[in-house]
Design goal:
- The complex is a heterodimer of chains A (157) and B (283).
- Chain A has 157 residues and is mostly helical.
- Chain A has one domain: Orthogonal Bundle (Cytochrome Bc1 Complex, Chain D, domain 2), CATH 1.10.760.
- The longest helix of chain A has 12 residues.
- Chain A starts with a helix and ends with a helix.
- Chain B is of the alpha+beta class and 283 residues long.
- In chain B, strand 7 and strand 8 form a beta hairpin.
- In chain B, helix 3 packs across helix 7 and helix 8 crosses helix 11.
- In chain B, the strands form five sheets. Chain B has a three-stranded mixed beta sheet with strand order 10-9-11.
- The chains are: A mainly alpha (157), B alpha+beta (283).
- At the A-B interface, loops of A face strand 7 and helix 10 of B.
């Protein structure tokens, strides 16, 4: 019921794609970079999150991070710290903020901002080398971020 | 022989390890006679950004390294042999070949690769070898320009590079070239694309580290043109730049563009002191 109301409201405002979703430009980051509530308005699915973290076509987080829980995925990079124990070190809100825009947690971080749509220098259309389309989607959708956060929360030492 | 023995020992010692670290200590001698400097002190203009500079050769596997130690094994030499024939072949309305004006490539082109890109006083711009070659083709031979990254062009650049093998890269960055060099430097540190990654993020801050399955080098261009096992052909510098920028989910620049010429001058200058190596072999 609450969902329906929100959908209606969103439709009226004409912004968000669906119920309870926060658009990239509307995300509120707390001091220190955390994001309190779900970006999609729904809980995350940890097993889909694991897929996103390991897959080259999705988050490709293992390009830079080692994750013991994904030992079956070949070739983990060593650019960032190992994600083992991330669920102990960070709260869910901190993890959400970190994945959405790591630069607000770690200033100048090399880690890409996965829920951001503007402020880029020569943004491209994925890996084609061509210019980005006008409505450039974020690297991960709101629900994909939630799925990744749910997976990271399971990474306990 | 020394190389083979080292490979065997490395295999025994390193077998259980999955992570590689840093550049290795192997020394590159081509055909048993040309000593190649693959590690040396960083040029002063880097101002400590890199403690030492390394050729990309130091970051490749022993198998890939071996292919560059002997020109009979180097798959890039096939294109060089083809370019040797083109050098002597008349083309265009003026009835001339490269050899008509430059005689033997082994004499006239010694040391040329080492100082390019270079300021051209007449044109009032910094020029790459490719631009200079096309200038000779169109303005002096009355022939058609070659496409900037075409196989024929890259092969000719490789033939010319070969004549400087073992000589230190020594591009000028001051005087009239300085503004172009500054532009290239700014590009090197710009975080392009949706992934917001600069050349420096990967090749200055993280050389020696793995990014997924790739062992990051310093992204030096002393070895270009580079024969890549991945696409089984010689690759030009601008081809490589294009690929690296595309991988940041960015809109790339065009090969031969003033932006890539500036970037080439800057990246070449980061390798001042390393030996000209091309055609090199990379994965």
């Amino acid at each position: 019921m609450k969902l329906t109301t929100l959908t209606l409201a969103a439709a009226l405002i004409g912004g968000a794609a669906w119920a309870g979703e926060t658009a990239p430009k509307d995300v509120v980051f707390a001091e220190g970079g955390a994001v309190e509530s779900s970006l999609s308005g729904a809980p995350g699915d940890a097993s889909n999150g694991a897929m996103i973290v390991g897959s080259k076509k999705h988050g490709n987080c293992v390009a830079c991070h080692q994750v013991s829980a994904l030992a079956d995925v070949p070739f983990h990079g060593e650019i960032g710290p190992s994600l083992d124990g991330a669920g102990d070190r960070w709260t869910e809100a901190e993890l959400r903020g970190l994945v959405a825009n790591a630069k607000l947690t770690f200033e100048g971080s090399m880690m890409p901002s996965f829920y951001k749509v503007d402020g880029y220098v020569r943004p491209g259309d994925a890996y084609t080398g061509d210019a980005a389309p006008e409505n450039l989607p974020p690297l991960l959708s709101a629900q994909e971020i939630e799925d990744v956060v749910a997976f990271l929360a399971t990474l306990k030492e | 022989m020394r190389f083979k023995a080292m490979t065997a020992i490395a295999a025994l010692v390193a077998a259980p390890l999955t992570v590689m670290a840093g550049p290795d200590d192997d020394e590159l001698v081509i055909n048993g006679e040309i000593n190649i400097v693959t590690k040396t002190a960083a040029p002063a203009h880097l101002d400590g950004a890199l403690p030492e500079i390394y050729s990309g050769w130091r970051f490749r596997s022993d198998e890939t390294q071996a292919l560059e130690m002997d020109d009979f094994e180097n798959p890039g030499m096939v294109a060089v042999d083809a370019a040797r024939e083109v050098w002597d072949k008349v083309d265009g309305s003026e009835g001339k070949a490269c050899a008509s004006c430059h005689d033997a490539v082994e004499d006239s082109m010694v040391g040329v690769r080492a100082v390019y890109p270079k300021w051209n006083e007449t044109a009032g711009e910094v020029r790459t070898l490719e631009t200079q070659i096309n200038d000779c083709r169109t303005n002096r031979m009355g022939a058609e320009a070659w496409k900037y990254t075409s196989g024929g062009m890259t092969a000719m650049v490789a033939l010319i590079s070969l004549q400087s093998r073992g000589m230190p890269v020594n591009v000028a960055i001051d005087g009239p070239a300085q503004a172009t060099w500054e532009q290239g430097k700014e590009m090197y540190y710009t975080r392009y694309g949706q992934l917001e990654l600069s050349c420096a993020n990967c090749h200055e801050d993280n050389y020696g580290n793995m990014i997924r399955a790739d062992h990051l080098s310093q992204g030096q261009i002393n070895g270009f043109p580079a024969y890549r096992l991945k696409n089984t052909k010689l690759n030009s510098v601008h081809d490589r730049f294009k690929g690296c920028i595309r991988d940041t989910r960015a809109e790339t620049f065009k090969p031969g563009s003033s932006e890539f010429v500036a970037l080439e001058l800057y990246v070449a200058s980061r390798g001042n002191g390393l030996s000209v190596e091309g055609p090199s072999v990379r994965n």
